[in-house]
Each structure stands twice: as structure tokens, then as C-alpha cells.
Amino acid sequence: MSRSHPAYDRLLRILREMGSVAVAYSGGVDSALVAKAAHDALSENAVAVTSISPTFPASQLEEAKQVAAAIGIRHLFVQSDELLIPGYAENTPNRCYLCKGDLYTLLADAAEKERLRVIVDGTHLDDLTEIRPGLKAARERGVRSPLAEAGLNKETVRSLSRALGLSTWDKPASACLSSRFPHGTPITYERLGRVEASEEVLRRSGFRQFRVRYHGETARIELAAEEISRLLDSNRRDALVEEIQACGFKWVTLDLAGYRPGGAGRSGGEFVVLHRSDDAK
Fold first, then answer.
1. N or C: less crowded end of the chain, CB within 10 Å?
2. Three-state secondary structure call for residue 71
3. CATH topology for 6-170?
4. CA–CA separation, 101 vs 259, rounded Å?
């Protein structure tokens, strides 16, 4: 930024007071800003830590690496497998609590090894108004949220990220692959792979905000409202449907209500069947 910004100054001051931090870093908008501020405030006493797991898309991991490198922060990795956590694969409403508990245990071990005093996450003020079981797990383990402590909401996070030159400033919202499954639908490695491969088809085709929701043999596509018309173009639609079916789905549908957070567990709006298999009657 060309000149001081009060909100960013508050964020830097909070981080400096921590002395040293391990940033729970996914490469998304929020954690990227925390990583940038931590590096600016603490230099080598700030480390970004990313958990590599079956629920973290490979494309997102590569983006996270690139952003961390651009920031200049040291970037470490821990290996995890949420499906091995007792109760996680059953996909109950406390799934995120179980996941974050495991994640922050791994980060605590990494922080101890690196002699870092505090674990910080990317929670901001708007997150505090939502039901987030993972936040409960963070608080139980002493994880701090410098964005929220500095009084930053999502809009401010994006505007600061843009001013700081972060490529993530307009990045669409992201979430782990398990969020594509309605609660009660068991999560397996094979099903995660089908969803990830299907979303990669949409990503390669230039779509920005999307989800492929898992409903057994059916892939339900959610797109940002302004992108729906692109998918309905017959040439593009037929090719995408064929590619997504090749990922292991029999039916491919488009949710006309468009993308919305938490859409895996909602009934949604009207559905359009983009294609059905030849044997469907």
C-alpha cells in the first residue's frame, strides 16, 4: 500500500504482540491476508502451515504454494487424513468440529517444533455471525483470529488484499471437498475423487465460482448466477456433461438457484437435467 491503512496497522500491531505465529494457511482470501500481515509484522517469526489431505483439492494446494511464495513467508506442510478421524466419514453435523480439532492438534505439534508461540487462523468478523463448529474447536485449543480481533469483515479483507497486491483479493469462496456432501451421506476416498475431478472440469473450462454437489449417481452443479448462461450454451454443455460423467456420475444437473454457501444441505431451487445416460428411461 502506498500509505498506512488504520485497519492494517491494527492487524500488524496485534500480530507483533504475539511474538511468533503459525498461520493456519489454506491459500484462501482470509488466510492469505493473515500470512501477508504475519510476514510483514514478524518476518522469520511467522510461518504458514498447510494441511495436505484427501479433502484439500490439488489445484488449491498449488495455488496456496504460489501465493505463499509471492508473500515470501516460510511455508510448511503437515499430512492429515480426515477420513481416519472417528466419526468424520459418517458426515454428521459435527464433521467440521472433528476436522478442525485434528487440524489444530497437528498445527500445535508443528508450532512447538518451530518454537512458535501462537496459532492464528483466518476467521473475520462476518464468520462470527455464522454457525461454525470449527470455530469452537479453535477456541478450545487457544487458536487466535487476528482479523476478527482487528475488527475486519470480509469486505475489508478483500479491499486490503487488493491494496496489498495479493492475487487472492477476488478469489471465490472455497471450502473443503467434504462440504459437497449432504450431512448423513458417508464420505469416501472414491467419492471425494469424483467430486474433485468434476470440479476440475469446470475449473479448466474457465468457471470461477462453482460447486459440484454429490447426490449418489447425480452431480448437481452450482454456479454463480452470472455464469449459468455460459454453461447452457449447447456446445459447451455437451462437452462438460460428457467429461463429468467420465468422472463417475450417471446424471448431471444444474441448480438454477445458483451457488450459495452450504448448498450441499439445502433443497435448492429448480433443477435442470443437463444429460441422462442412454439407458435411463
1. C
2. helix
3. Rossmann fold (3.40.50)
4. 28
Quick: pLDDT tens for 20-47: 999 999 999 999 999 999 999 999 999 9
Judged by DSSP in three states, 231 sits in helix
Residue pair 253/272 in contact (Cβ under 8 Å)? The answer is yes
> In this structure, how many other beta carbons lie within 10 angstroms of the beta carbon of residue 66?
12
- pLDDT score for 280: 43
Distance CA 79, CA 81 (A): 7
- The b/e string for 255-272 (b: 16+ C-beta within 10 A; e otherwise) is bebbbeeebbeeebeebe
Question: What CATH number has the domain spanning 177-275?
Answer: 3.30.750
How far is the C-alpha of 226 from the C-alpha of 37, rounded, in Å?
Answer: 33
**Percent helix, strand, coil in the chain (nearest 5)?**
50, 15, 35
**Residue-wise pLDDT tens digits, 218-251:** 999 999 999 999 998 878 899 999 999 999 999 9
Cβ distance 32 to 145 under 8 Å?
no
Q: What is the DSSP string of 100-166?
A: HHHHHHHHHHHHHHHT--EEE----GGGGGS--HHHHHHHHTT-B-HHHHTT--HHHHHHHHHHTT-
Query: Could you state, in order of their start, the residue ranges of all structural domains in the chain?
Result: 6-170, 177-275
Within 140-270, strands assigned E span 210-215, 218-223, 251-255
Spatial contact of 106 and 113, defined as CB atoms under 8 Å apart: no
> Of the candidates 244, 246, 204, which has an alpha carbon nearest to the alpha carbon of residue 221?
244
